[in-house]
Amino acid sequence: MRYQISGKQLDIGEALQTHVKAELGEVIEKYAQRPTDAVIVFSKAAHEYHCESTVHLSTGLTATAKGHASEIYAAFEACRERLDKQMRRHKRRLRDHHNRRSGPVEFDGGSSYILAPTEEADDGETGELLPVVIAEMETKIPSITVGEAVMQLELGGQKMLVFRNEGHGGVNVVYRRDDGNIGWIDPRNSK
């Protein structure tokens, strides 16, 4: 497994890196058979240290966790506990409900655009600003079931996930609603 441990405007010592590798390796080994890599970033805001971790699993799913505390080791421990909880839930769901997958998740490519208004893009009549494309990047769209999409949404701590429904091949969206529930958009069923 590859570890990328870094600090944003912080010097991360060898002792902390060794501690992170040992503790995180123990958690991941317990719940995931073949993780590919882990990215851990430490930062400091005022008097508080923050730790963000992202673990990529061989199944194509990604688990993320964040922790913060007044000491750097405590921030990592908070992050590790959250990651442990997510991985435990993920393992339980795979064991209980999602044991039908025989191969890894397949990904399709897709373009992602960031839109921002500019002052030059005035339409003249209403005085409103029109959006202009300022960035374009490639993104990966997984081909998974709805249940796996919800699991990925929860594991990644995301608000929305676009995926290709493995059942019928159409593009679907799952998202976290304001009331805490999960919403599912399937354009194929809108007829």
UniProtKB/TrEMBL annotation:
Biased amino acid composition, Basic residues: 90-101
Q: Could you tell me the keywords of this UniProt record? A: Cytoplasm, Translation regulation
Residue ranges occupied by any Sigma 54 modulation/S30EA ribosomal protein C-terminal domain in the UniProt entry: 131-183
Query: Which InterPro entries does this one have?
Result: HPF/YfiA_ribosome-assoc, HPF_long/plastid, RHF-like, RHF/RaiA, Ribosom_S30AE_C, Ribosom_S30AE_C_sf
Q: What is its main location?
A: cytoplasm
Q: Where is this region: Disordered?
A: 90-112
Q: Taxonomically, which superkingdom?
A: Bacteria
- Annotated compartments: Cytoplasm
Q: Does the keyword Cytoplasm apply?
A: yes
Q: How does it assemble?
A: Associates exclusively with 100S ribosomes, which are dimers of 70S ribosomes.
Q: Which NCBIfam families match?
A: yfiA
Q: Which family does it belong to?
A: Belongs to the HPF/YfiA ribosome-associated protein family. Long HPF subfamily.
Q: What does this protein do?
A: Required for dimerization of active 70S ribosomes into 100S ribosomes in stationary phase; 100S ribosomes are translationally inactive and sometimes present during exponential growth.
- The protein's name: Ribosome hibernation promoting factor
Q: Which species is listed as the source?
A: Gemmobacter denitrificans
